[in-house]
Recover the amino acids of this structure.
């Protein structure tokens, strides 16, 4: 009987060690899809390297697509949640809505629905905010900024106010399009994300 109990204990320990790592799901656009730079240089890939070194280790799934809008992200999210079962959902969407000058009310509704879907799937949620170039005018830019701040407050979601903080206003850190970071700037982007993400991993 004692041998049998020892065997059960060892089997349980082995099962615990074999448990898959918790997962961070990143749903974003080209800013998270390593646009025009090597994939291994992108902040999401760098995040995966960092998470893999944690004890216990975490994994990351990058579901980001260049050109993604909040609506297309909202439509894709349910299947991703069912497949990945993330412990943390990182939402980096809204830049393409803004660059196209789309109304902000649908953007806020789409982001709110994604936050709710993530929560209902058992995930903690981190929202990554974005800023637009100054030529979009202060009213629209302030409105976009308020979308993220209001959602973080109302939904009690974690927020990084500006994904490209410390990067966007430095021409040497941006690609020629003025919208995407160069590879050497991606570690700074990761540090911006990490400030909001790290508390959610514990």
């Amino acid at each position: 009987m004692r041998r049998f109990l020892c065997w059960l204990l060892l089997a349980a320990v082995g099962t615990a060690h074999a448990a898959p790592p918790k997962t961070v799901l990143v749903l974003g656009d080209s800013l998270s899809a390593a646009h025009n730079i090597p994939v291994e240089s992108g902040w999401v890939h760098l995040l995966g390297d960092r998470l893999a070194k944690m004890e216990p280790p975490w994994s990351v799934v990058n579901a980001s697509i260049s050109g993604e809008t909040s609506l297309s992200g909202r439509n894709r999210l349910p299947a991703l949640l069912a497949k990945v079962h993330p412990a943390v959902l990182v939402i980096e969407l809204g830049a393409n809505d803004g660059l196209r000058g789309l109304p902000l009310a649908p953007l806020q509704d789409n982001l709110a629905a994604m936050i709710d879907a993530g929560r209902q799937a058992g995930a903690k949620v981190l929202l990554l905010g974005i800023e637009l170039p100054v030529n979009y005018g202060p009213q629209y830019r302030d409105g976009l900024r308020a979308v993220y701040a209001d959602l973080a407050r109302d939904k009690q979601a974690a927020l990084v106010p500006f994904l490209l903080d410390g990067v966007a206003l430095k021409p040497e850190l941006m690609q020629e399009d003025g919208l995407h970071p160069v590879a050497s700037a991606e570690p700074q982007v990761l540090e911006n994300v990490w400030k909001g993400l790290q508390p959610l991993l514990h």
Q: What stands out?
A: The radius of gyration is 19 Å.
